[in-house]
Amino acid sequence: MCNEITSDYLALQLGLYQPFIINEENADQFEAYMRDPKKIQFDSYCIECKKESTFKFHSQRGVLPAPPPAYVLTNFLDRIKSDDPITLLFQCQRNGGHLFYLTLLIRGNKVTKIGQYPSLADLQLHKIDRYRKILKDDYRDFSKAIRLYSQEIGAGSFVYLRRIFENLIEEARQTAASQESQWDDSIFYRSKMDEKIKLLKNYLPEFLVQNRQLYAILSKGIHELNEKECLDLFPNVQLAIEIILDEKIHQKEKQKKISSAQNFVSASIERLKS
């Protein structure tokens, strides 16, 4: 767990109901954050502008009591009322009517985010919209995985990511079967995933082939790892899936450009002959 409070940590990194521990190292920083929130600003996607924007502090509900002259951590924690949530309201600098809400509950030395709008999932989903066409029906699974992760459900999120991985392999199998006269499905279906990927290496993104152990990580997450372990792994697993999809998009765009250039050359030669 991070012990440093950056301008965007509580809003964009800390998950719902995931306690943040106040200790001697960050207590001063946290109190300064809460007592003078006018200095707080962070960059985030605005779901209403549908663009990246800067959000600045607008108002606060719930106030911390003034500190005594000789401040120490224990005194600060003892003075916080455990039943009074603090809500911070931030305003989009593109449009002042677009707001970001953040509600914190402080009990003992634990800070828990008990509410947020927009949700972390809402802020993440716009980033994967570029994969909608390449994923087709699997786009829904990708969005489900991100929503589950934002709700602190680790193994469940891995189920959807592994399904996407498996469907990428199946798509490549169909392509191979349609293009190779000697392709043998019986050999493919008898093979383990590692061997399947090797059989399809000419039809899969290079990153996937070189990092085919990703499937083992996904399977281990579903069957063996606990929720926290899955949650810790999720961001990098998501990144790996996105790199695979980025490569597919690049190859598709490259092929489209090649076809366009070939058509231009052929048409130009015919025109110049006449």
Structure in a nutshell:
This protein has 274 residues and is an alpha+beta fold. It has twelve helices and six strands.
Write structural notes for this entry:
- With 274 residues, this protein is α+β, with helices and mostly antiparallel strands.
- 52% of the residues lie in helices and 16% in strands.
- Strands 1-6-5-4-3-2 form a 6-stranded antiparallel β-sheet.
- Strand 4 (86-92) and strand 5 form a beta hairpin.
- Helix 6 (139-150) runs antiparallel to helix 7, helix 7 (154-179) runs parallel beside helix 12 (227-273) and helix 11 packs antiparallel against helix 12.
- The longest helix is centred in the C-terminal third of the chain and has 47 residues, at 227-273.
- It is flat.
- The N and C termini lie far apart (72 Å).
- 20% of the residues are buried.
Could you list some keywords that capture this structure?
274 residues, alpha+beta, 6-stranded antiparallel β-sheet, 12 helices
Helices and strands in order:
Layout: H1 9-13, E1 20-21, H2 27-35, E2 41-46, E3 51-61, H3 73-78, E4 86-92, E5 99-107, E6 110-117, H4 120-125, H5 132-135, H6 139-150, H7 154-179, H8 185-190, H9 193-199, H10 206-210, H11 214-223, H12 227-273
Antiparallel strand pairs: 1-6, 2-3, 3-4, 4-5, 5-6
Helix pairs in contact: 6-7, 7-11, 7-12, 11-12
Number of helices: 12
The major sheet is characterized as: 6 strands, antiparallel
Helix and strand pattern: HEHEEHEEEHHHHHHHHH
Strand content: 15-25%
* Structural category: alpha+beta
DSSP strand tally: 6
